[in-house]
Amino acid sequence: MRNATKLIFLLALSSSLYGLDREEYTRNFDKSFTLHAGQSVRVEHRMGEIVIHTHPQMELIIHAEIRVSASDQSRAREFADKIEILAEPYQSEYSIRTHYPENPSSFFGFNRVSYSVRYEITMPESAPLNIRNEFGAVSVTGLKANGDIKSSHGAISFQDAAGTQHIEDSFASVEVSHNSGDVVIANTNGSVKVADIAGALTVTDRFASVSAEHIAKDVKISNTNGTVEVSDCGSFATIGNAFASVTVHNLGGDLTVHNGNGKVEAINIKGAADLNTSFAEVSFSNIGRGLSVRTNNSHVEGSNVKGSAKIENSFGATAISNVDGGVHIQSANGAVSATDIRGDANVKTSFAGVELQQVAGAIDVDNQNGSVNATSDAGSNSQNVCRPISIHTSFAPIRIHLAGSPNYRVTAKTSFGKVRSEIPLMVSGSVSDDALSGTMGAGLCELRLTDNNGTIEILKASSSH
Amino acid sequence: MIFECRDLDRALSNPDLLAELQMHMRDCEGCRNQYRIWTEISSTARELHQEWESPALWPNILAAVEAQRPEPKHWYMEWKLWAATAAAAATIACVLMYWPHAPAAPSPGIHSGDQDFLTEQALKDVEKNEAAYRRSIDELSRLAQPKLASASSPLLLNYREKLLMLDSAILETRSSIAQNEFNAHLQSDLADLYREKRQTLQEVLTDAQRN
């Protein structure tokens, strides 16, 4: 009975104490040291923020704010006094470490202590910096030497620096801006944002977004399951991703994108663009030196390509316009449209229509179960120019529009349909509704049109445009 | 109207179409499976709704932290406080006049009203919410488990890997919290991880439902 009373009393006491407000105690740690040239600064820490500032002097100034929360002030003070800041010089580095004591065991929660230490360090800007932190943010400003920062569960902010920077984090964001050297960032499950880097940038990430802008040299980004955005970068960019979009605007060099199940957008690329994805849209414009797109189950659309364009797609529409060179489009089960092509147009698809407008070069279309409507500009500027045309399809009509004074040797043949020409030609061989052979103008090159179960029409370009 | 698989979503929100859906499901295994998943999700959601006191963990933590701050008293009604404040202001003015280089860093001593640490009450609220959150996540995990176990698509494999990674991070954070339970940063970190895990599981279920 006595024991039971004692127990009830203790429970009542503990619950009444449990309801009490907690108290906090703060102890400051301050230390200064003059580094010698070449000596680096190393900080090993957990449970708290690290803020690094720099100055031109060689003096290292350490300020740490040790904060403890406990049920009363004396317990908080006792624990705070046991937290050690180990700041020691070594031959090549100055080491700063945080040592937490064992958290005392708790009886009815009386001794439940919580703690954090916040560092504010001013260091020589020329000293290399090495940081290891967990469960606390890291902020570095003004470092003019190499940095190596590793953290987890704490955001990293790094700005106004020079030198090569290696930054690694997980489960928190990384932001880097204004660095005159190369930057390498590895993150997991945390976003990465980088801007104004005079060197090259390499980023690997997973499950979070990556953005990079104003990077002077090469950009390499490898991500999974997070969007990638790159803009206003001076050199080439290589980007890998999956299950999320890749957007690149204003790039000074070549662009290579390997995406899977994610949209790709490339705009204002001075070099060549090599865009690969699947099951998502590809869009592009103003590509400076040739375009290559490999995808499937996608919608591909874009314009203004200097050089040639090669596109592979299936089960999705492909549309391209204003290409300085030739276009080579291989598709299946997807419509193809190409307009204002100043080189050759080579198109293969099936079960969908092909629409070619203002093609200056040769035309070669191989389709099945889909119509073909093409306009050749080859003869529009000169009477002695001829670019061969070969079109084949089935179960749908062929309409070819010829500009100027065409010079073709014509062979047109179909079944279960008719062949009709709006342009006069010198017929050769036998004449029938479904076959036609002859010569237009000087007959400088071939015009071969083959269909099954569809009509063929040869028309003047001016009459339909 | 001939009921087709694409009408399923509409039928779920329109009781008039349920009879036709039932008829259709007799011969359509795909729709039967989808309907089963929907039913499981909605019944689970109902159960969770009963237990879940708040839909968001961290706002509750913040609210709890805010709530534990001392209640603002009607000090302007108390003339003694007015007098004390005036005296304190005069003292501070004198100190500032004669001590222009006062240290900026906080001096040692007791602090209150900061958010580095939780209070007892805030921690209690956090733990209560965390328990509810974990129960809901366990339920979602149970639903997603068959899809993840038989994952063959790259996306599902990716989700599975992400969930493993999140579990490992949750374990790590919880282990740190065991030694530092009032640390607000740790609790916030854990809340973020739980939130992300829940979102990932929901994405898994949505993806499974879509396919």
Compute the number of helices of chain B.
Answer: 8
Structural class of chain A: mainly beta
Number of strands of chain A: 43
Structural class of chain B: mainly alpha
The global form of chain A is elongated
Outline of chain B: elongated
Rg for CA atoms of chain B: 27 Å
Structural descriptors:
heterodimer, A: about 475 residues, mainly beta, 21-stranded mixed β-sheet, 43 strands, B: about 210 residues, mainly alpha, 3 domains, 8 helices, elongated
What do these coordinates show?
The complex is a heterodimer of chains A (465) and B (211). Chain A is mostly beta strands. Among the domains of chain A are: 22-104 and 112-136, no CATH class; 308-465, no CATH class. In chain A, the strands form two sheets. Chain A has a 22-stranded mixed beta sheet, with no helix packed on it. Chain A has a 21-stranded mixed beta sheet. Mean pLDDT of chain A is 92; it is low at 1-19. Chain B has helices at 8-13, 18-27, 29-51, 57-68, 79-98, 120-149, 154-179, 184-210, and one strand at residues 109-111. Chain B has three domains: 1-51, no CATH class; 54-70 and 117-211; 71-98. Chain B has 211 residues and is mostly helical. Helix content of chain B is 73%, strand content 1%. The longest helix of chain B has 30 residues, at 120-149. Chain B has eight helices and one strand, in the order H-H-H-H-H-E-H-H-H. In chain B, helix 4 runs antiparallel to helix 6, helix 6 (120-149) packs parallel to helix 8 and helix 7 (154-179) runs antiparallel to helix 8 (184-210). The interface between A and B is large, with 41 and 37 residues. Strand 1 (23-34) of chain A pairs antiparallel with strand 1 of chain B, so a sheet runs across the interface.
